[in-house]
Amino acid sequence: MKRYNMAINLAFMLLLMLTPSVVYASSNSNISEFEECYREGESKGIIKDGNISKDTFVEMCKESVFPAYLEAVKTDPTLTFEQFVADDNYEVPFQKKNDHPEVVTAEGSGRTAVGPFVNFISASKSYKMKAGDILICYGTGSSGRLVGHAAMATSANYIIEMPGNYRKIKGNSWRSHNARVVSKASFFKSHTKGKDYVAVYRNNHPIYSDRASTYAYRYMYKKDNPYYKITSNIFEKSPSYCSKYVVLAYYWGATKKSWGGGHRVGIIPPHQLPSYFSDSFVPSYKYKVTSY
Predict the structure, then answer these.
(1) pTM
(2) Could you tell me the keywords of this UniProt record (predicted)?
(3) Which fold has domain 94-291?
(4) DSSP of 37-96, one letter per residue?
C-alpha cells in the first residue's frame, strides 16, 4: 500500500510538471491561426498603418490572448478563437476617425517615437494625467479570461483600479475587495515594460470625468469596495472587474447617458471598453504611453 501511494504521488507530481509545457505547446501549434486572425484584422481595417506588427500580434497571442481564450472557452464551448480576438478588437486600441494619439512617456525622458499617428513626435513629452482619464493596458498581461487591464485616473498623481489578482479569503478565492488606489509612477512602471504600453482615453465632458472619478473613489472604493469576479451582469456593482468597474463609475457616478452598450450583455473586454460609451461620451484616444 505504501509503494502504491508513493506511485500515485509521483504520477501527480509529474502531471503538474508537464501541464505548463502542454499549454505552451498548444500556443505554438496555433501560429498559423494567429496569422490568419491578423490578416482578418487587416481586411476589416482595424489593423492598419503599422498599429501592430504581425510578429508582435503573434507573440501576444502566444503569451496572453490564447491562454485567456482557453479560460473563456470553459464557460462558452461554442466560442472560437477568431471570435475571441475580434471581440478584443484584434489587440489594438479602439480608435475614432479623428483620433490622433501622441506617443509619450508617463514621466521624464523617453524613446523616439516613429509611427503613422505620431508624425515622428519625440516620446520625451510627458503625459499630464487628469481625473477621469481611462487607462487601457496592452501587452502580454492577462487576468483569467480577460486580455489586458483597465483603470481610471482620480487625479494628476493617482489611479484607481480593480486588478484580478486573487487573495484567499475564507475559502473563496474570488471574494476579495480588490479595488485599490495606486500612484501614477507605480502603475506606469508596471504596465510599460518591454513592448507593453498604456492607451489613454479622455472623455469629452470634463465635468463628468470629475464626477466619475470622485464617485469611484468615494462609493466604489472607500464606502463599498466590490468583490472581484468576472460575471455577465453589467449593471450590478458587486462583484466587478477592471473594465466593468470603469464603465460603472461613469454610469452610476456621472450620468446614465454615458452608457452606449444598448442591450448588450456579457463581459466587457478591456480593449473594447471605449465602445460601451454613447455618442459624445465615447472617449478620445489621446496618448500612447510607452515608458516611465
Answers:
(1) 0.81
(2) Signal
(3) endopeptidase fold (from Nostoc punctiforme) (3.90.1720)
(4) HHHHHHHTTSS-TTSS-HHHHHHHIIIIIHHHHHHHHHH-TT--HHHHHHHTGGGS----
